[in-house]
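Incident log, structure service

09:12 report received: a user says their structure output differs between two submissions of the same chain.
09:20 pulled the input from the user's history:
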Amino acid sequence: MIKVIDDWYITVDSYPTNYTVRRGEGKKGKNNKWLDKPKGYFNSLNGAVKEIRRLIIAEHLENGVGTLETALDTISEVDARFEKLMARIEA
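09:34 re-ran on a clean worker, output below:
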């Protein structure tokens, strides 16, 4: 499990390589299966992290009511958090 940000994380299957985006506590249940439902499947870590960013932005915008300026500020704040993460992945 790769903890990304807040309660978002990525699980990795080694063969074939698959990165699964999940949100929650990151616990496994009986049969050693993840309890949190998948939010998406990706063939790269970069793609999985980008999807988490997209989902966080959508959640923020869905729950708030405001102006375009407020929405752009929200996106900028989330982007600033993810720029640091993405720089490490792409390095």
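09:41 both user submissions now match this output. Likely a transient worker issue. Closing.
09:42 reviewer note: The chain has a mean pLDDT of 90. The longest helix spans residues 68-90.
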